[in-house]
C-alpha cells in the first residue's frame, strides 16, 4: 500500500465562525483506504500557515507506505532541517499527517485506533464544559457579570456536566476579550488591581455557589505573569479549584515551577508545548501536576501517547487539549481511553456548535452524565462529510 495523494480542507470556507476554522486533511492510498487528520490551528493567527505546512511535508511522503508511521515521522523530523527545530506550525503539520496515518492503519487492520495503542483502560471518559466565559450555548458571547457566569455554568450542569472550565480574567469589566482588545484599566501583569481581583473573585464565587460538588478549572491563557498568577491563586484559594491552567508563558518551566511552589492549586499546561522534548523540562522540575497535550499540535497520536506514557512515570495526570473540529475530538478520545493517567476530557464550547458538528459524519458528544465513550469504528471513527469536502477543498498534493 502506498500514499497516492493528500487533500487539504479549510473549514473556514463553509463556517461563519470568526475564531474557529479547522484545517483537515485526507491521505489517500492505492488500496482505496483514506485517513483523516486535523491541523491544530483552528484558532489564533497561524491558520493559513497550516495549509502550506501540510503541502511542504505532504509532498515528501507521496509513495510511502502509510503503515510505517514511525518511519514517516522520523523522516519529517530529521530530514527537513526545520522539523527538529519544532514550533507550532511545523508540529501541527506533522500531527495532522500522523493522525491520518493512524486512521489508515486502523481501517487496514479493521480495528479502532485505541486497540492498536494497547486497548481500552478507561470505559467512560468524564468531560468538562470548557470556556464558559463565552456562555454555554450555540452562539458565543462574552460573559461579564458574576450572574452571567453562574448562568452559563448552570446550562452546562443541566446537560450533565460535573465540571466546568472558565477564564475569569480574559473578559474585562467592559466586555472586551483581552486577546483581541486589551484594556489599560484591566491590568493582568505586574500586580492585579483591586477592581480586577474583586470582579474575578465574584465571578468564581457565583459559580462555586451553585454547588460545592462542581469541579471548577481555571484557565488563564497565559494572560498573567508569575507574580499576578500567584497573587490571584492565593486570593481565591478557598474556592476549591480543580487545577490552574497556563498561568504564565507556556514554555517557561522555571516560572511555572515558581508558581507551583507558592500556591496550593495544582498547575496545568500543555496545549502550546510540543513533543517529548518540549515536556521534558516540565517533568524534570516537577512544575506541572496536569499536562494538556493537543493531539493535533504535539506531534499526533504517536507523540501524544509517548508524552502521556512519559508523564505517567512522573505521576502526572493527562487532560488532552481539544479545541478544533470533530476530527480532533475523535483522535483525543482514542488516546485518552488507552492511558492509565487520564484525568478528564475537554468538551470545548466550539465543539457544541451545530455548524462545526455538521462538517463530519459522526457526532460524539458527552451523554446526560457528562461522559463520553471512544468510537468503536475502524480507525479514528470520524470522517469529513462529502458535502463539506466539496465546499472546503483547498489543495491536493500528488
Describe the structure.
Helix 3 crosses helix 10 (300-313) and helix 5 (146-158) runs parallel beside helix 6 (194-208). The longest helix is centred in the first third of the chain and has 21 residues, at 88-108. Strand 5 (163-166), helix 6 (194-208) and strand 6 (215-219) form a beta-alpha-beta unit. The chain starts with a strand and ends with a strand. By secondary structure, the chain is an alpha/beta fold. The strands form two sheets. Strands 4, 5, 6, 7, 8, 9, 10, 11 and 12 form a nine-stranded mixed β-sheet that branches. Strands 3-2-1-13 form a four-stranded antiparallel β-sheet. The protein folds into two domains: 3-110 and 384-397, Enolase-like, domain 1; 116-372, TIM Barrel (Alpha-Beta Barrel), CATH 3.20.20. Helices cover 36% and strands 15% of the residues. The protein is built from 13 helices and 13 strands.
Rg value: 20 Å
Tell me what the CATH architecture of the largest domain is: Alpha-Beta Barrel
Provide mean pLDDT, rounded. Answer: 96
Strand content: 5-15%
Characterize the largest beta sheet: strand count, sense, and whether it forms a barrel.
9 strands, mixed
CATH domain class name of the largest domain: Alpha Beta
Task: Assign the CATH topology of the largest domain.
Answer: TIM Barrel
Amino acid at each position: 500500500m502506498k500514499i497516492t495523494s493528500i487533500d487539504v480542507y479549510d473549514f473556514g470556507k463553509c463556517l461563519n465562525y470568526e475564531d474557529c476554522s479547522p484545517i483537515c486533511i485526507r491521505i489517500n492510498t492505492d488500496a482505496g483506504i483514506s485517513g483523516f487528520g486535523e491541523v491544530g490551528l483552528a484558532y489564533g493567527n497561524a491558520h493559513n500557515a497550516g495549509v502550506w505546512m501540510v503541502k511542504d511535508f505532504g509532498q515528501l511522503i507521496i509513495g510511502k507506505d502509510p503503515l510505517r508511521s514511525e518511519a514517516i515521522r522520523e523522516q519529517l523530523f530529521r530530514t527537513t532541517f526545520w522539523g527538529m527545530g519544532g514550533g507550532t506550525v511545523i508540529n501541527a503539520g506533522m500531527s495532522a499527517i500522523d493522525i491520518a496515518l493512524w486512521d489508515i492503519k486502523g481501517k487496514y487492520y479493521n480495528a479502532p485506533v485505541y486497540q492498536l495503542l494497547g486497548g481500552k483502560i478507561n470505559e467512560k471518559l468524564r468531560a468538562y464544559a470548557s470556556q464558559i466565559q463565552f456562555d454555554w450555548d450555540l452562539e458565543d458571547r462574552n460573559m461579564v457579570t458574576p450572574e452571567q457566569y453562574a448562568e452559563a455554568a448552570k446550562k452546562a450542569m443541566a446537560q450533565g456536566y460535573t465540571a466546568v472550565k472558565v477564564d475569569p480574567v480574559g473578559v474585562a469589566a467592559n466586555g472586551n476579550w483581552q486577546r483581541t482588545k486589551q484594556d489599560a484599566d484591566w491590568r493582568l501583569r505586574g500586580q492585579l488591581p483591586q477592581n480586577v481581583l474583586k470582579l474575578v473573585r465574584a465571578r468564581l464565587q457565583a459559580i462555586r455557589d451553585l454547588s460545592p460538588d462542581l469541579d471548577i478549572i481555571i484557565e488563564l491563557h497565559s494572560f498573567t505573569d508569575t507574580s499576578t498568577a500567584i497573587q490571584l491563586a492565593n486570593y481565591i484559594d478557598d474556592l476549591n479549584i480543580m487545577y490552574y491552567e497556563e498561568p504564565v508563558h507556556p514554555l517557561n518551566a522555571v516560572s511555572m515551577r515558581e508558581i507551583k511552589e507558592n500556591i496550593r492549586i495544582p498547575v496545568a499546561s500543555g496545549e502550546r508545548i510540543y513533543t517529548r522534548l518540549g515536556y521534558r523540562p516540565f517533568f524534570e522540575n516537577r512544575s506541572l501536576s496536569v499536562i494538556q497535550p493537543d493531539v493535533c499540535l504535539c506531534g499526533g497520536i504517536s507523540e501524544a501517547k509517548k508524552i502521556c506514557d512519559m508523564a505517567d512515570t512522573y505521576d502526572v495526570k493527562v487532560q488532552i487539549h481539544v479545541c478544533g473540529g470533530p476530527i480532533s475530538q475523535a483522535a483525543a478520545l482514542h488516546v485518552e481511553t488507552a492511558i492509565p493517567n487520564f484525568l478528564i476530557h475537554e468538551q470545548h464550547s466550539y465543539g457544541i456548535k451545530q455548524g462545526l458538528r455538521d462538517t463530519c459524519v459522526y457526532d460524539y458528544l458527552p451523554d446526560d452524565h457528562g461522559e463520553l465513550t471512544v468510537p468503536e469504528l475502524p480507525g479514528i471513527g470520524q470522517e469529513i462529510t462529502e458535502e463539506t469536502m466539496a465546499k472546503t477543498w483547498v489543495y491536493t498534493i500528488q
